[in-house]
């Protein structure tokens, strides 16, 4: 798998999704890290929803969460930072299963 992103920008964003999207699942950073480190993770680079072409999507399993997590990371300033994470939707679950 590729290098780990800087997780500092994810704190306060992914872990409070339910405040912005009622009923959504908060994703603590350690869960996103587990997904990133999944040996079977699916990597889509660039992310299929990226307008700039600078973001990537990684879909991986988190044992702590008990479900797949989609992590969005962005290439910026010669580094990679985690920008968002959420419980994977059906499309991302299918991409993960397809490898």
Q: Label the structural class.
A: alpha+beta
Low-confidence stretches: none
Q: How large is the radius of gyration?
A: 12 Å
User: What percentage of residues falls in helices of 4 or more residues?
Assistant: 10-25%
How many domains, in number, for the residues?
Answer: 1
Largest sheet, in brief, is: 4 strands, antiparallel
Rounded mean pLDDT is 93
List the strand order in the largest sheet: 1-2-3-4
Write down the overall geometry: globular
Number of DSSP strand runs: 4
Terminal-residue CA separation:
13 Å
Beta-strand percentage? 25-35%
Topology order in helix (H) and strand (E) letters: HHEEEEH
**Tally of helical segments:** 3
In short:
The protein is of the alpha+beta class and 99 residues long. Helix content is 21%, strand content 30%.
Description:
The chain is α+β, with helices and mostly antiparallel strands. It has one domain. The protein contains 3 helices and 4 strands, in the order H-H-E-E-E-E-H. The longest helix has 9 residues, at 90-98.
Give the SSE layout:
Elements: H1 17-20, H2 29-36, E1 42-44, E2 55-62, E3 67-76, E4 79-87, H3 90-98
Antiparallel strand pairs: 1-2, 2-3, 3-4
Essential attributes:
single chain, 99 residues, alpha+beta, four-stranded antiparallel sheet, 3 helices, 4 strands, 21% helix, 30% strand
